[in-house]
Amino acid sequence: MKAIEMHITGVVQGVGFRPFVYTLARTYHLTGWVRNDSDGVHVVVEGPAQLVDAFVAAFEDKAPPASRIEHIAIRPIEPADHATFEIRASQNIEGERTLISPDRALCEECEAELFDPKDRRSRYPFINCTNCGPRFTIIEDIPYDRSATPMRDFPLCEACQTEYSDPTDRRFHAQPDACFECGPRLYLNWGELDPHLSSSWTWSPLMEKVPRPHRDRDEEMARSNSIILEVVEALHEDKIVALKGLGGFLLCCDAKSPSAVDKLRNRKHRWGKPLAVMFPTLKEIVRYCELTQRDVELLTGAVRPIVLLRLKADAPDDLAPGIAPGLHELGVMLPYTPLHALILDEFGGPLVMTSGNMSEEPICTDNAQALEKLAPIADAILLHDRDIFSRYDDSVVRVVDGKTYMLRRARGFAPEPLHTAIASPSAVLAVGPEQKNTFTLLQGNDAFTSQHIGDLESIESLESFEEAEALYEHLFRIKPQVVAHDLHPEYLSTKWADALARAEDVRLIGVQHHHAHVASVAAEHSYTDPVIGFALDGTGYGEDGTIWGGEVLIADQNRYQRFASLRPFPLPGGAAAVKRPARTAVGLLHELDLLGHPGARFLLSRLAEDEQSTIVTMIEQDLNSPKTSSAGRLFDAVAALIGVADDAAYEGSAAILLESMSLPLGEIGPPLTYRFVITEADDTATSEQDIAPNGRPIPPYAKARYLIDPEPVIAAILDDLDRGVEPKELSRRFHFALVTLIGEMATKAARESGLNTVVLGGGCFMNRMLLERTVKTLQDKGLYVLVAEKLPVNDGGVSFGQAVVASTRLELERVSADTEP
Question: What is the pTM for the complete model shown?
Answer without folding.
Answer: 0.93
